[in-house]
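Subject: for your reference before the review

Hello V.,

The reviewers asked for a structural picture of the protein, and I figured it would be easier to keep everything in one thread rather than splitting it across files. Below is the amino acid sequence we used in the manuscript, unchanged from the supplementary table.
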Amino acid sequence: MGNFLVFIAGILFLAGILFIKPRAKQDLKWKTVLNWTLYVVWYAITGMGISFIYINSSVGHVKATSTAIFLFLGLSLVLAIILARLLGFLGKTQKNIDTSAKA
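And here is what came back from the structure prediction:
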């Protein structure tokens, strides 16, 4: 199971790079560096969390597993929202559409 998780982790890391690359190149240099740094930190925290949860659940440590789910999932979610906001996936302003009929 561990080999399969490492294989999936590599595929997801490459998919993330291919997904972020077109959007990150369009921004300023400091924002591009910030996006890539946040992506690597998010990936590392998510990977550590999944491995911590996997190891503790296989041994039977229920409290450690539930604490890890809460801690790592929370950190991963916060970083993912910040990264999505910086990349422009969240918070886009929509154009005002005038629905009133003009005569």
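For the response letter, the relevant points are probably these. The helical segments are 2-24, 29-59, 62-87. The radius of gyration is 19 Å.

Happy to draft the paragraph if you're swamped.

O.
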